[in-house]
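User:
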Amino acid sequence: MPDQHHDQHTHTHTPAHPHGHRPRALRLGVAGPVGTGKSSILATLCRELAGELAMAVVTNDIYTDEDARFLRSAGVLPTERIRAVETGACPHTAIRDDITANLDAVEDLEEAYGPLDLVLVESGGDNLTATFSPALADAQLFCIDVAGGGDVARKGGPGITGADLLIINKTDLAPHVEVDVAAMVADASDARDGLPVLALSKHDPASVAELAAWVRSVLARHRDGTLVSTDPGPMAPHSHGDGDTRGHGHS
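Assistant: Predicted structure:
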C-alpha cells in the first residue's frame, strides 16, 4: 500500500528544455467529480486541437477502461494514442500518491508516437480535493458542472481553488436545473483569488474556442520555458471509520 502523503515513484520530472532540444510534450491533467464531463472535455479538446497539434490521451478508471473506449469510439484521435490506466484504488492515488502507472503510460506514448505536443491525462472521478502531482501534470484543470448545484464552487477544496483553470461545465443545462451561471462564476472567481474560471458548454462555440485558446497559451509557455508547475495542495486527511486516516475522500 503506497504512502498516502508522498509520491512513490522513481521517475524524475523531465525539464521542458533538456539540452536545448525541443521540449517534451505538455502534460495537462484534467480532474473533477464523477459525471462533470471530463471525458467530454477531452473529446472537445481533441476535436479542436488535433488538426494542429500532435496529441495523445491517458485515461484513469478504477476497474475499467470505459473512458478510453468512449474516446476511441468518438474517433477524436487514432485509437492507439488513447491509453487506459486501471488504478484499482481511489482515483487520486494514481495521479498524486503513486504516479508510476500514469507516468509510464505518458512516456510510452511519447516514445511510440513522439514528438508529441500535448498529452491529456484524465483522472478518474473523485471529489473536490483531487489534484495532480506536479511531477505528473505540468498544468491542471478542474471540472465541476451546473448539474452538481450552484453552490459547488463555494465549497472550495484544492481542486476548485488551486487548479490552473476551473471549468464550470454544461452551462446549457443551467435553465433546467435552476442554476444562475453568472453567480456560480462569481463565486468561483472569489474562491480562486484571480485564477481563471471558464463557463463551458460543448454546444457553445465561443466557450470551446476560449478553452482551446487557454490550452494554446499554456503550451506556448511550456515551449518557451516560462511555465512553472504548481501544486494546488494536498488532499485533506479523511477518516474511513476503521482507524485508517488517509488523504482521500472515499474508498
